[in-house]
Amino acid sequence: MQDRKMPLLIEKFHKSVNMLNKKMRISLDIDADTRVCHSEAHLLEAVRVNEGANATELAKILGITNGAVWQSAKKLAQKHLLEKYKHPDNRKEVYFCLTALGEKACAVHNHLHVETSAQLHEYVMQLDKNSSDAIDAFLEVVMQQIHKEMK
Q1: For residue range 101-141, what is the model confidence (pLDDT) as tens digits?
Q2: What does the angle CA 136 – CA 43 – CA 25 come to, to the nearest 5 degrees?
Q3: Residue 146 has what pLDDT?
């Protein structure tokens, strides 16, 4: 019986990853004229949470390339969600800050996360320690595998 469960578990995991990838391609409506994809919303959130971070630091935080940060930042600036600036004492480094519309985009994105995470949070909170540890270990292996494949 255990042998049959393992392929089904892996299959269900891959199916959930595929569904999440599909969901990540859906844009969020911020207002009547502005839409952002999830990766753009994650960059906005990283800028909001990590005030004063430059592109290199944001890339490390998000696990993406420096170039990806710059590409997204350029799009977000064109949508008036993000602004670039330099510190007066360091004219070389470029930093980012959110506009009022960027703050709104973060709020929309966070609301979506709260809605989708509530059921997961409720489920995880009722798990016993062994079950929680097993899921944690599984997710750690998944993240290590993904990280290894991205190199």
Answers
A1: 999 999 999 988 888 888 889 999 999 999 999 999 999 99
A2: 75
A3: 82
**pLDDT at res. 1:** 46
CA of 116: how far to CAs of 14, 26, 50, 109, 119, in Å? 19, 15, 24, 11, 7
The two tokens of residue 63 are: 């696990």
DSSP 27: P
Q: Does residue 84 lie in a domain region? A: yes
In the chain, count H helices and then E strands: 6, 4
**CB atoms closer than 10 angstroms to residue 86:** 11
Q: 51: domain CATH number?
A: 1.10.10.10
Q: Which pLDDT belongs to residue 48?
A: 96
* Domain count across the chain: 1
Mean pLDDT for 91-98 is 90
Give the count of beta carbons closer than 10 Å to the beta carbon of residue 68: 16
The pair phi, psi for residue 72, each rounded to 5°, is -65, -40
Report the distance separating Cα 131 and Cα 140, nearest Å: 14
